[in-house]
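Contributing new complexes? Match this layout with MGD.
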Amino acid sequence: MSAKAPREDYTDADIEVSPPKTFAAGIGGVYHSMEPAIRQLGVARTAALMAKINHKDGFDCMSCAWPDPDHRKLAEFCENGGKAVTWEATPLRIERSFWREHPVASLLDKSEYWLGQQGRLIEPVYKAKDSDHYEPVSWDDAFTIVADRLTELDDPNQAAFYTSGRASNEAAFVYQLFARALGTNNLPDCSNMCHESTGTAMSYSVGIGKSTIAYSDFAAADLIIIMGQNPGTNHPRMLTALQGAKENGATIVAINPLPEAGLIGYKDPQRVRGYLGTATKIADQFIQIRSGGDMALMQAVSQRVLSAEQAAPGTVLDHDFLARHCDGFEAFAEHLTGLDDHEVALATGIPAAEIDELAARYLKAERVIVCWAMGITQHRKGVDTIKEIINLLLLRGNIGRPGAGASPIRGHSNVQGDRTMGVWEQMPDSFLDALGAEFGFDPPREHGVDSVHGIRALDEGKIKVWVGLGGNLLGAISDTALAESAMRKTRLSVQLSTKLNRSHVVTGEEALILPVLGRTEIDLQESGPQYVTVEDSVCAVHASHGQIPPISAEVRSETAIVAGLAQATLRDRHGIDWAAMLRDYDVIRDHISRVVPGCADYNAKTRTRDGFVLPNGPRDARRFDTATGRARITVNHLEHVHCPAGRLLLQTVRSHDQFNTTIYSLNDRYRGIKKGRHVVFVHPDDVAQLGLRDGQHVDVFSEWPDQPDRVLRGLRIVAFPTARGCAAAYFPEANVLVPLDSTALESNTPVSKAIVVRLEPAA
Ligand SMILES: Nc1nc2c(c(=O)[nH]1)N[C@H]1C(S)=C(S)[C@@H](COP(=O)(O)OP(=O)(O)OC[C@H]3O[C@@H](n4cnc5c(=O)[nH]c(N)nc54)[C@H](O)[C@@H]3O)O[C@H]1N2
Ligand SMILES: Nc1nc2c(c(=O)[nH]1)N[C@H]1C(S)=C(S)[C@@H](COP(=O)(O)OP(=O)(O)OC[C@H]3O[C@@H](n4cnc5c(=O)[nH]c(N)nc54)[C@H](O)[C@@H]3O)O[C@H]1N2
Ligand SMILES: [Mo]
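Output block (do not edit by hand):
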């Protein structure tokens, strides 16, 4: 049954290219999710796990934050959920011989794919200052090493605590408590690189940084606009909701530089018709926008809405809603009179007729939802673009009523919950006050570092201890070379992980790997088996119960490790009873219920089969907790990305077979790529115009003022129907091209979707 870990890494010599697909999932989806699982886990383990994914007494799928419908199907998972579970629940283990055979330096030229395939981490390992080997270490010794280094610091701000969005609410809560009880708000997280622009924009405009809809709103919408998101790969279960919406008569508009398969068509693998019949057409209108053109597009649509109101006063805008709930309408209307059509055409790259069509659809619809993800947030003007999305929705009262709203689609399965629990470098004083009152200390108020500032601080030698609760910061952050040299300057790096990745091989002087239980595994503590809780994209909170025995007796839960680290470091400082929290997670949940807004009776509410939905002002009561107490229609200065002649705007995307820096396979089925990742997708006319050929190998240079060019060598050109002037390559490989300084205004999110590049034939 079980597969072996690869010894050799892959090469890209055999890349196969075929035409991209025009629909997602279907029979291929189910086959592709089950086949590797059965091969690696065996039939029995596969069946035990797959029947429990996203079920009420089962575990929450760790692949994405898509919500669960009220009526869950027998198999409530998708192809990519299947891959995530298989990857975590593999019986392959990293045995002691691995560490003996592989000095850390020898792992530096291994790919993320190879590292991730070596199996599960099964015991704590430590790399001493002058050693190039990790060696097994006891848990007690591991905790002592961390405690000693933290205690030696001159200032608690010399430590930073990174979180990736897979951590449970319980682990996240204890983790932020540990950091703050130590005295720092240095709590950078993956969200800084992800939906930070969303949080920044929405908090300003509507007073909450989260989706304003419930799952059931999809079925009630009559127009759904999907911007900068590839649901067929990254949120496959969303396609089921979209198909349902279509059956209820909704229209769907997709806005994307790439004709992603899941936006064009869909076959539901869970329905008989999906196996046999033709695909459901998803997008009624596909707008192939130029990268970074969305802000101009939103302004142009709003301008048309305002013109329609002028032509038929009193019939277009939701005057009652605007009068009761919104600020800023007059200034906004005034500002848009100056919108320059030529600028809009340059920014969007689409004819005015397509914008007219979108505006007409918007005006015809009574209930509109706009969804977005990384194609919007990871731009220099990402925050303003989201504010323009909100503006458009507010004009016709499309927030806070059934079938309508703003719906950022989150990434990591619990990234939203981690934030709710206080993992953020800039939690508001109200939260810190409640935390301090609950635990009897005064939490630090000075904001901490985010991910990008964290790398800067490491580079400047200001951070001496870096702890990662999951994730792979070095694989995920921009400017790989700079980030890696920065991490090497720190005294101690600590990773709490399930599997090996780049952040374990590029380390501080000393390094620790602390192996954690995955979400599939049973978490047994002194008081018995524990459940944890998570929050999805639409603010629904529910329990997740591990199902299978842990991969090794030495592996501990994230919560237990964090509580252990805190206890070893802080001992009885502030009188916080870490041991009680470790013994029984109900104790943590009781604390949560008193500290975190909306979480009263947290134990009781998360024990119900469906969990509960967190309060949400705009959704529940059209209540906008902004500084003015009203929703804010904003004026934003239009700026689009200028790309000099002979250059392309490169975006970094996920393949169909990866989860962020985790590479499941070397294929990208929907885009027609097999057996390799070193490709750059370019429009055929751009290929010709640049004097290059399809299939040719090129070096990709990114240009940034006053800095030497960054380069990624040897990518194969794939002629592809992307928008003109745009190109795409895979993340994380292409992170070397993103300058650390290139971040979104206000949110500081790396600009991973608009890198000005030059292609030169490879030597
Ligand atoms: N299987 C799988 N599931 C995942 C993940 C994964 O890696 N694998 N990652 C998880 C995480 S953490 C996240 S955040 C989400 C990410 O989900 P997505 O945001 O869907 O991820 P990306 O691959 O970055 O795709 C961005 C999309 O935006 C488009 N785009 C790029 N630039 C622009 C632009 O300027 N305008 C517009 N309109 N579109 C643009 C791209 O062509 C692409 O389709 O998925 C989550 N789910
Ligand atoms: N160029 C470019 N860069 C990007 C992006 C992009 O689109 N383009 N996207 C950004 C986005 S949206 C995000 S969210 C970040 C992702 O940044 P991260 O969240 O830091 O990265 P991941 O690749 O999701 O982390 C994978 C690692 O998490 C660990 N892990 C897996 N499961 C568990 C678990 O249950 N517990 C613990 N403790 N560890 C676990 C494993 O060791 C695995 O190797 O990357 C960002 N970087
Ligand atoms: Mo993300």
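Reviewers usually confirm one structural detail per submission. For this one: The first strand starts at residue 16 and ends at 17.
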